[in-house]
User: Fold this.
Amino acid sequence: AMMNGLGQNTEAVAHSMQDAQRAMRQVGNLRELNATVEQYAKLSRSVRENQAALLQAKMSASALSAEYAKSQKNTAQLRQQMLAAREAMERMRSTVSPQTYAAMRSEISRLKDAWKNSQAATKAAAKAFQDAQKQVKDVGSSLSSEQAKLAQLSSQLSQAGYSTQHLATTQFQLQSALRQTEQEAARASQAI
Assistant:
């Protein structure tokens, strides 16, 4: 009878160990899911921030595009004015007084300086526009990869039976399940 009791005791200990191991695996799984939910929440915030940043970058790029186009047009107009004035001066060279000719040269010099300044401004506007386009591309790329990762995490949680639509509820459910399972694991470990 003693051997029979010992066998039952050994069987009970083995069963308790299996319960403890099962509970610990469940604790591990729930902790992993909880970490996934936290990662999802953090990534979700980042996606919202990047969506706003992308909108801002697009608006900025659009404004800089308009500024660049305006600067290009202004530069072209100044060049045309300078060339027309230079051509008129050459045509009238022999028919105007030296003072008028000097005034025309002075005006052409002023137009040339304005044109060069406008070229520099256009170059700066082009650089600002290119930088803004790069930022739109970079933020868009980052947003796309974050959205793909978010979809992957959402799928993982959905497969585990948790919704990302009501994230706070999901977090509460997971934390409650985790506390309960940790308590069960602790009881099962003490029973060994």
About this structure: The helical segments are 2-92, 98-159, 167-191.
